[in-house]
Amino acid sequence: MKRSASADSVDEDRRLTLVRAALCDPSRVTTQSPAEWNLLISQARRAGLLARLGETLHAAGLLEAVPDVPRRRIEAERMLAAKHAVDVKRELAFIQKALARTGVPIILLKGTAYAIAQLPPARGRVFNDIDILVPRNRIAEVEAALRLEMWNTTDVDAYDDRYYRNWMHQIPPLTHVARQTVLDVHHTIVAGTTQIELTAHKLFEAAVPTAHDPGLKVLAPADMILHSAAHLLNEGKFDRGLRDLDDMSLLLRHFGTKPGFFEALVERAAELDLRRPLFYALRYTATLLETPVPADIRNADRLKPPRPALRAFMDLLFEQALRPDHPSCRDGFSGIALWLLYVRAHHLLMPAHILVPHLLRKAYVRRFKEEGRKG
Amino acid sequence: MSIAAILRTGPFVTRIETDISAITHGLRQLYAPDQLLMDVEFSDFDVAVVRPLLRRWYRPQATFLFDGHPPFLPLPLAHAVPLLEWGLNWAISLHAHEYLIVHAAVIERDGFAAIMPGVPGAGKSTLASALAHRGWRILSDELALISFEDRRVVPLERPINLKNESIEVIRRFAPDAAFSPIFRGTSKGDVALMRPSAGGVACRSQRAIPAWIIFPKYINGLPAELERKRKAQFLLTLASNAFNFSMHGRRGFELMADIVDQCECFRFSYAELDEAVEIFAGLRPPERLASRQ
């Protein structure tokens, strides 16, 4: 037994950048110490990026050079991701069957979309639920059809249910009774009351069919990035923040090679009123993950960038939130930074006279439920 | 103050951080000295058992952390040692996909393994512990790790989890067995951990050829009986006892089918350990396996 924490034997600067550095420049891992390897694997697993790291190393021809122990942990996670990719296709077939009678058009979102449209973020992506988007005026029909085929809401009380339906961009998550798979049915990409119908309508108009199955569509490239940006930077939940940022980085690298893509992206952000999240998305994919975003685009006035003081403050908050969710990446400022982003997310969503009672109730109920579980 | 131990159990290296003296003491008591390593090495799992700040004094608790986060709720501090053992089982069964993992006890003799799955309470740990003191070696108490490369069972070298009446039964059956203290009133009742009987290092890492699949069942008052069963049915039952069968898809199915195919398959009911020992002593590996050893 010895008194040394593995995390402590890695410099602080290195600790905070291990995962990002390995994704950006995989050749760096070849010179890592055992302590750095251990921490990298642990952080990447927490961040939901271990399989992605594996695919990155594999693509760079470096997986064979990884020492035995970390390699088997990486390989196990790659197997899990490969299994998820198969499961998603099967689960989607069930969903399509359940919704066939309704004739509702289905748009796939997030990980599901990447997997079916075979986009770069599909590589090594582990996910727990399936996300689909359907028109808001068909949602009752969709929900009824799914419930008939044994999808059910679990662990959602009346308050939560109403909160979802009034304030969120989705209905409460549905779990399949037999397979225990979770399905999120969205009716738009941004929560809140402003311009929902209009935004959703535009998304449906621009959606593109997939080669896998023309009946399954995905968002148009710009919309896909805007959705990811709104989801990550406006919603206040960051447990998989770095993974979602890396998804966006891979999408930008992939779509960004097409001439005029970035200009069109900025245009679309203005049209959908998602300029601010796009500003942050382009900023942090570039600064944290070395994504090649043209400088004039990143600072375009049309994105209505925040004032320098606010920007500097938001940089501090987001830099914290976009670290792997691992104790070695946390410091005295982490808690308050995450809390501020959480409150900001709710503030973007609802007026203060509703927000304050809601947050108080959430804090109280969570405590109450935990105590109840402990018995 | 936090102390780190590096523990080798079978193929895995685990970094364990703790501020609980019962854990450091328990590790020394339940594992062989050469399983506790001194230097920072590559590790498979990063775990901790620590005392949560808010419950340090009032009804103190222990929390298990994996990658720095608690996968389950804390337990009373007095149950820290079983919490670590259950946490390690959880870590292996959810992450070690390089193996096909079956929820089963495994014992070995002359290089051949008996895989004993069974629902909790079927008496598999009790039976395995008894046999471990009568010529068999325990490869694992909970998790049968089956290798895709050589189709053998990989030893895990972990203490054996005995519950309730079984603790006293094994104490009487094998007075020289080394036990942890009894942890009373856990979610699984009273629990004691038995240190596996010492074997050489070389012997401890030796893999075994699966030769028998035996579903044990403790039935009070009946004579011990070994009943041969149909293999097709066993394949399904074994699959439902595996942690990651579906994850491996076709590859997992083929490995499982091969294992069931090469093994003798039995249901075994028993009440008296002495009778069980006698019947197990009479087990012979199937002919076509005997030549492989």
List keywords for this structure.
A: 375 residues, alpha/beta, Beta Polymerase, domain 2, seven-stranded mixed beta sheet, B: 293 residues, alpha+beta, eight-stranded mixed beta sheet, six-stranded mixed beta sheet, 9 helices, 17 strands, 29% helix, 32% strand, globular
Spatial order of strands in the largest sheet of chain A: 3-4-5-2-1-7-6
First-to-last CA distance of chain A: 36 Å
- How many H/I helices of chain B? 9
Q: Beta fraction of the residues of chain B?
A: 25-35%
Shape of chain A: globular
* Main sheet properties of chain B: 8 strands, mixed
What would CATH call the class of chain A? Alpha Beta
The largest contact between protein chains, plus residue counts on each side, is: A-B, 35 and 31 residues
What is the strand content of chain A?
5-15%
Concise account of the structure shown:
The complex is a heterodimer of chains A (375) and B (293). Chain A is α/β, with parallel strands linked by helices and 375 residues long.
